[in-house]
Amino acid sequence: MEAVLQVRQLNKRYRNGRGVRNVNLEVRRGDIYGLCGPNGSGKTTVLKLATGLGRADSGEVLLFGDDIRERFEPAMRRVGCMVEAADAYEYMSGYDNLKLSARLYPGLKPSRIDEVLELVGLARYAREKAGGYSLGMKQRLALAMTLLHDPELIILDEPANGLDIEGTVELRELIVNLAAHRGTTFLISSHMLDEMERLCSRIGLMYGGALVREGSIGELTSGVRLEQAYLSEIRKAKEQEGIRDDRSV
Ligand SMILES: Nc1ncnc2c1ncn2[C@@H]1O[C@H](COP(=O)(O)OP(=O)(O)OP(=O)(O)O)[C@@H](O)[C@H]1O
What we know:
Number of strands: 10
Number of domains: 2
Shape: globular
Bound molecules: adenosine-5'-triphosphate
Structural class: alpha/beta
Order of helices and strands: EEEHEEHEHHHEHEHEEHH
Strand order of the largest sheet: 6-7-8-3-9-10
CATH topology of the largest domain: Rossmann fold
């Protein structure tokens, strides 16, 4: 399967000494790829570097085979991003927020706004002010913005954060539907391992700024829960670093 995103030997060190190191990952066409790990493990940093929102110290990011340092704009036209996304304007309706975002994409048909509202289940509330939306509705509006230009790859940073059970299930169904019916590829970061196990076809496990394991759900779990597989990878990583850990993980 064609590689849609390739991250090679990516390094970024913030001034406080934290960041990510030697990250290699590959998202292939049709994947729902889950970048998993606890808070602070480096997921957002990887997503920011992969989408040009931050600059790596070293390493390469290829989107659709092109190095983003050389062909950033053409590559990003094929990507939808919800990474540190700007909030919607609260005093404007959902529809008007989308109309404003649509100006970023010359040639976009106005009917596309109605289509994405329908897709994310906000059509009924399109004329209401975004300020009155629930957190779940605001998340759906942000997702609608990423869908406007019908991207081939959608990158979402912790999209289920703050959603209730119903909202989480709806989000999962939306992602699965887009992947199945439009062939959209997803890269999603989350610390919710159970949800990622249900949703994703491939997983990358991050710990302490490094990608400690990558593989299909089947390869990673083979008979155990993802949570268990993750804890065992962390233990191995700690052993390699020579860190003693007496907890039985
Ligand atoms: N702008 C920044 N300046 C300094 N340190 C940062 C910055 N952004 C992230 N870090 C540090 O880099 C490490 C990785 O953070 P990152 O936000 O990528 O992790 P994460 O897995 O996405 O966590 P979370 O789920 O909490 O967002 C953390 O230790 C964090 O404190």
